[in-house]
Write a structure and sequence with these properties.
With about 220 residues, the protein is an alpha/beta fold. The protein has a single domain (about 10-105, about 120-220), classed as 3-Layer(aba) Sandwich (Rossmann fold), CATH 3.40.50.10300. The chain is about 25% helix and about 30% strand. It contains 6 helices and 12 strands. The protein has an 8-stranded mixed beta sheet with strand order 5-4-1-6-9-10-11-12, with helices on both faces. Helix 5 links the parallel strand 9 (about 145-150) and strand 10. Helix 1 (about 35-45) packs across helix 6. The longest helix is centred in the C-terminal third of the chain and has 15 residues, at about 205-220. The radius of gyration is 18 Å and the shape is globular. Bound molecules: cytidine-5'-monophosphate. Cytidine-5'-monophosphate binds near residues 93, 129, 130, 149 and 150. In the N-terminal section; belongs to the HFCD (homo-oligomeric flavin containing Cys decarboxylase) superfamily. In the C-terminal section; belongs to the PPC synthetase family.
Length: about 220
């Protein structure tokens, strides 16, 4: 029976990958099952929050009592987030947003032309959803608390510390250890202004509950 540490909070969460179409049958994406973000949505709801989950393409059931908006691309995700951020008091960005999209999507399937030469694709950078929300007046005034995630292959503490400052968020959460994509467990490194602490290896469900408690403790009151 979880204590209602997020009662009265309006929580907005991004989860899963984004999919950036190249043509009607192809695209680029990131590896992400969405499990951590969905577990956090569930834990936040159980902690008494009003929860909106903006989900990229994933195969997961919606946690009970959570409002879910399904999106495909990074731009779709940004629009959904901006549409919901107004009333939110807590934003948790767990999505693995694709860094790039093709500059111009083909409306027709790109055909092999027989020359043996692959098509040349030009990419443009996607918007950084977390950084944008963190720079918004509500976040800057402290009315909206922002939490970022980081998946790194090495030097997690150094990268997470730098990323926290670069994104302009009070709390940055690193995924510890080898890729946890699709796994049911994980370990987390929490980096904030005070320093860092580890949430040791556990199920994503247990970690989500611990993380919610850690965030609740940091919220301005
Ligand atoms: O820069 P990097 O992708 O490593 O940052 C990860 C954090 O930023 C995550 O919280 C992720 O959800 C968020 N992010 C985002 N929009 C992007 C890229 C990352 O919200 N375009």
């Amino acid at each position: 029976f979880a204590p209602k540490v997020l009662a009265g909070q309006k929580v907005l969460i991004t989860a899963g990958p984004t999919f950036e179409a190249i043509d009607p049958v192809r695209g680029i994406t990131n590896l992400s099952s969405g499990k951590m973000g969905f577990a956090i949505a569930r834990a936040a709801r159980e902690a008494g929050a009003d929860v909106t989950l903006v989900a990229g393409p994933v195969h997961l059931p919606t946690p009970r009592g959570v409002r879910r908006l399904d999106v495909k691309s990074a731009q779709n995700m940004l629009e959904a987030v901006e549409g919901q951020a107004q009333g939110a008091t807590l934003f948790i960005a767990t999505a693995a947003v694709a860094d790039w999209r093709v500059a111009s999507q083909s409306t027709e399937k790109i055909k092999k032309d027989g020359s043996g030469q692959p098509p040349a694709l030009n990419f443009v950078e996607n918007p950084d959803i977390l950084a944008r929300v963190a720079q918004s007046p509500r976040a800057q005034s402290g009315a909206l608390y922002c939490v970022g995630f980081a998946a790194e292959s090495h030097d997690l503490l150094a990268h997470a510390t730098a990323k926290r400052l670069r994104k302009g968020v009070p709390l940055l959460v690193g995924n510890i250890g080898p890729a946890t994509f699709g796994q049911d467990d994980n370990a987390l490194l929490l980096v904030d202004e005070q320093g860092h602490r580890e949430l040791p290896h556990a199920s994503k469900r247990a970690l989500a509950q611990q993380l919610v408690a850690e965030i609740a403790r940091r919220l301005p009151r």
